[in-house]
Write a structure and sequence with these properties.
The complex is a heterodimer of chains A (about 400) and B (about 350). Chain A is an alpha+beta fold and about 400 residues long. In chain A, about 65% of the residues lie in helices and about 5% in strands. In chain A, α8 packs antiparallel against α9, α9 packs antiparallel against α11 and α10 runs antiparallel to α11. In chain B, the strands form 5 sheets. Chain B has a 5-stranded mixed beta sheet. Classes of the chains: A alpha+beta (about 400), B alpha/beta (about 350).
Chain lengths: ~400, ~350
Amino acid sequence: MPTDLSRSAPPGEKTRFWNDPAKRALLFQVLLIGAILLFAGSLISNTLNNLEQRGITTGFDFLSQKAGFGIPLTLIEYNEASTYGTTFWVGLLNTLLVSVLGIIAATFLGFVMGVARLSDNWLIAKLSSVYIEIFRNIPLLLQIFFWYFAVLRTLPSPRQSIEFMSSFLNIRGLSMPAPVPESGFNLVIGAFVIGIVLTFVTSRWAHKRQDQTGQIFPMFWAGLGLIIGLPLVVFMLAGMPMHLDYPVLKGFNFRGGMTLIPELVALWLALTIYTAAFIAETVRAGILAVPKGQLEAAFALGLPKVRTLRLIVIPQAMRVIIPPLTSQYLNLAKNSSLAAAVAYPDLVAVFAGTTLNQTGQAVEIMSMTMAVYLTMSILTSVFMNWYNKRMSLIER
Amino acid sequence: MFNKKLLTAAAVSAALASSASFAGTLDSVKERGSLQCGVSSGVPGYSVPDDKGTWTGLDVDVCRAIAAAVLGDASKVKYIPLTAKERFTALSSGEIDVLSRTTTWTLTRDSQLGINFAGVNYYDGQGFLVKKDLGVSSVKELDGATICIQSGTTTELNTADYFNANGLAHTPVTFDTNDQAATAFDTGRCDAFTTDLSQAFALRSRMGDPNSVVALPEVISKEPLGPSVKQADDQWFNMVKWSLNAMINAEELGITSENVDDLKANSKNPSIQRLLGGSEGLSKGLGVDDDWAYRIVKQVGNYGESFDRNLGAGSALGIDRGINALWNQGGFLYAPPIR
């Protein structure tokens, strides 16, 4: 109901719909969506037309063809007889492996360095500053090359391997005994799961008890005991249902066992050290964003320094830290695609590299590869946003 | 206001929807006044830029020959360095007019990527380099070896095929460029380094101690390397094909860049006269004037000269002509006659 009579239409004459702002806005939205759809549709049909005109085969049939090339690091069963589709999964898992390892290590190192830069100890603070400034300002690709060739050049040839505890370190990687589970190992896995559940339950109980009585329960040690100790005890009781597959030097290289390849180590080191420098700055900003009064209040209560940091500062700083931290995680995952430069067989090197070359299906392979990175980014974002919601200040 | 927007949107989509009508590549090269040639980012002897940015090499000479024939000037070439991964997309999308980049002619590439191979300018084969102190004298002894390879080449598949066929195990370590693969091999990451033999010698010369590296006797694949063009443009296809054929025929007839003017004026040999534009209208179908082949030999030289300058005795590589000699001298090079 318009109240302003001077602007409402005289009775008997309807407003023209293009003079009605609400309808006009709707019309523009519809037109815009139509234009976008038209644009996308013509783009796709144009691409398909052109591909057909140039006699380029299209479609995803190639995924079931035999690949015929080897990959040095595979987390799933793969050999030369596997399909191109399998190369996709192998590459994807290798990308996830280095990304997850990198995210864990970079978070840890970044937090340590960020806190260290704010340390009262002059030397620690300066060392941390120097580390951050150096690694933040050197292009990542150079760092990857540096670590790769630095790592490679210092290692001996397989025949002069450095041996310790039946593991062998040489230029081909670190060959370690691989654990081979026997029957009865499922009990140990069960114990591990039970340990995690019990830890969760205990921590709830400890919180409650602390709220009621003020007594602090040594949760860390209890958790450690449950998650690691319990499976170990079960393992012993079950009569150690596992044997080790030792690496043996045969011909040129070690056979058997499991090998950590230098490419993975170099890429992991580079990604970790590079991203950690950025995370450290994020952490520093987060900590500095906590009002000074909070610290002073904590000290006034007589809380020790470590507990102040853990219970007062970090939880409040997390609100500032999490959003930029998310984007660092995404950067790390995307940067892992530089793997091809040092022969680490990730998704880009294996699938968008070798497979693309063998099949020539550029459009399909690139769409799949892009879809993977997009999905990874969205999932990371969703998880971090959920975590951010949980951590954010609850106003009552 | 919104009308304008709508019109723009409509115009954009209309422009996209109308499939581009192809002008022939020959005409567009003439119009542009330069040839866009896809080369490698630096393989000594084939296509490599010097410190002044001048490109030289056997593959580069093919581009220069085409430019000499079509535009009358061998220097009117714009070189576009491509990686192994980019090359076919650049060609089939029309970003380059011709791809002359140590590319192996295979069934898949010829039939599924929308390109045509215009001939062979180098018969190559894949071989293996190892360090002397490994004490290996044959590829058959490389069971279980780690092998450095460049990704995105036929090399990768050949290696897997060969090792599988002979019941040998191997671990491939695949690098983005051949340089990186060679460096990694040099540091000892791999037992062997495999690539086309032509490039192996060039890469070996850059290693720390070239004399400690030897090539094993086996050549495990056929690698006919040659220039390629986009499919569905037969006129341009012919032009590229015959530019290469003219260089090979010129060597066979003994025409060099030095004696070409003399032969054009005085030679009584009808084959030589035909090649150098002595018979009217022979090149009508190509879409260029009768002096096209004369310009190729004059400005670029014949195939033998190009080989010698870039790969053979007159170069740092010193590769033997071997199977790349002319058919009447024990090699494979045999170009259809110009008549």
